[in-house]
Amino acid sequence: MSINLLDFDAKGLTGFCAEIGEKPFRARQLLRWIHRAGEADFDAMSDLAKGLREKLSAAAVIEPPKVISDHTAPDGTRKWLLSVGAGNGIETVYIPEKSRGTLCISSQVGCALACAFCSTGRQGFNRNLTVAEIIGQLWWANKALTETFTSEAGRERPVTNIVMMGMGEPLTNFENVVTSLDLMLDDNAYGLSRRRVTVSTSGIIPAMDRLRERCPVALAVSLHAPNDALRDQLVPINRKYPIRELLAACERYLQSAPRDFITFEYVMLDGVNDSMAQAHELVQLVRDIPCKFNLIPFNPFPDSGFRRSSANAVSRFRDVLMEAGLVTTVRKTRGDDIAAACGQLAGKVLDKTRRVHRSIAEAAG
Ligand code: SAH
Ligand code: SF4
């Protein structure tokens, strides 16, 4: 199997260049061609000598995951389904807004953490995505969006923000996620600001500490409950990393974080975690932590056993947090018609799996 250059950040590419007897500046040239220009063909890399291009073609490939489908909802939300082999598909979603364009990226096929309300969790864990498969999502989106993007949108480039809120738990695929983050931040690659790249975690405490040391980016923590008894049920990893320890890890993270607050995500489940009493309990719980809340109306899927909280319950809950001085946003459910609301991917597991199999079969002829 050839080496896939999409698996390397700057350091990895420099090592690769050394191995084939090339100087470190070649790594910078390659980074720019691959990630800035979205080029996958060595022969198109015009400032590389022919001999070098031949050497590269013999030693390596630039191979992103294949696009199986590409849908745009009426509100502009765009979703790609990418094949990562063996009938597995992963989803990437682009959410355009006036002043920013956010790409929601997946980090694993399935997820081992089995949160009760999450359809990715219901699928179980299949495998970690490689760096090429993680960064390949941004590579594709950037390429596809640049073709139609005009800077009239008030910004220079289509993707300004990344959220690792697709399928999987990013902090249990630590090395590949950090290498991908390096590329997102690298000026020779995507050049995004640390403040605009967000890792979302269900609270893998040791990995939060490592992330803080290795690559501090903005952090979102999936809280979903105001106490351990309920969180143990909704987010089973809480039994290993309970709330008090999680909040202490958030405080440590803030010492090196590019933003001075943690975003807490809170999925709104009817009759489970959306009462006024629970809102007050939540206010008490986080009172010592600089934070913002993002309330996510539950995205239902077949046999989930949960219902979405009513709009009234969501706004009453939000009001309690706001009155206590906590900045709180309610996530808009966007792109619902293509099951692409970010953080709520894989809405229809069985259907989707069948569809992926069918389209892979069709693509294979
Ligand atoms: N594994 C990471 C990141 C991916 S999930 C995490 O758990 O944080 C991104 C967000 O979507 C998380 O806050 C997750 O709890 C939430 N989520 C999962 N399933 C959902 C559903 N069916 N409806 C609404 N939000 C959901
Ligand atoms: Fe995994 Fe996040 Fe889903 Fe929990 S909510 S099962 S951690 S993807």
TrEMBL record:
Q: Which Gene Ontology cellular-component terms appear in the entry?
A: cytoplasm
Active-site residues are: 91, 342
Q: Name one GO biological process term.
A: rRNA base methylation
The UniProt entry, under SUPFAM superfamilies, shows:
Radical SAM enzymes
Listed A to Z, the keywords are: 4Fe-4S, Cytoplasm, Disulfide bond, Iron, Iron-sulfur, Metal-binding, Methyltransferase, rRNA processing, S-adenosyl-L-methionine, Transferase, tRNA processing
**Which residues of the sequence carry a binding annotation for [4Fe-4S] cluster?**
111, 115, 118
* InterPro entries per record: Aldolase_TIM, Methyltransferase_A, RlmN_N, RNA_MTrfase_RlmN, rRNA_lsu_MTrfase_RlmN/Cfr, rSAM, rSAM_sf
Q: Which class of enzymes does this protein belong to?
A: transferase
User: Which molecular function terms from Gene Ontology are attached?
Assistant: 4 iron, 4 sulfur cluster binding; metal ion binding; rRNA (adenine(2503)-C2-)-methyltransferase activity; rRNA binding; tRNA (adenine(37)-C2)-methyltransferase activity; tRNA binding
Cofactor(s) named in the record: [4Fe-4S] cluster
Chief location bin: cytoplasm
Cite the cofactor comment: Binds 1 [4Fe-4S] cluster. The cluster is coordinated with 3 cysteines and an exchangeable S-adenosyl-L-methionine.
Q: What is its EC number?
A: 2.1.1.192
Binding sites annotated in the UniProt record for S-adenosyl-L-methionine: 168-169, 200, 222-224, 299
**What Pfam family is a match, any one?**
Radical_SAM
Residue limits of the Radical SAM core domain?
97-337
Question: What catalytic activity does the UniProt entry give for this protein?
Answer: adenosine(2503) in 23S rRNA + 2 reduced [2Fe-2S]-[ferredoxin] + 2 S-adenosyl-L-methionine = 2-methyladenosine(2503) in 23S rRNA + 5'-deoxyadenosine + L-methionine + 2 oxidized [2Fe-2S]-[ferredoxin] + S-adenosyl-L-homocysteine; adenosine(37) in tRNA + 2 reduced [2Fe-2S]-[ferredoxin] + 2 S-adenosyl-L-methionine = 2-methyladenosine(37) in tRNA + 5'-deoxyadenosine + L-methionine + 2 oxidized [2Fe-2S]-[ferredoxin] + S-adenosyl-L-homocysteine
Q: Where in the cell is it found?
A: Cytoplasm
Q: Does the keyword Membrane apply?
A: no
**UniProt function note:** Specifically methylates position 2 of adenine 2503 in 23S rRNA and position 2 of adenine 37 in tRNAs. m2A2503 modification seems to play a crucial role in the proofreading step occurring at the peptidyl transferase center and thus would serve to optimize ribosomal fidelity.
Q: What else is known?
A: Reaction proceeds by a ping-pong mechanism involving intermediate methylation of a conserved cysteine residue.
Report the sequence similarity comment from the record.
Belongs to the radical SAM superfamily. RlmN family.
* Protein name according to UniProt: Dual-specificity RNA methyltransferase RlmN
Q: Which organism is it from?
A: Nitrosospira multiformis
Gene designation per UniProt: rlmN
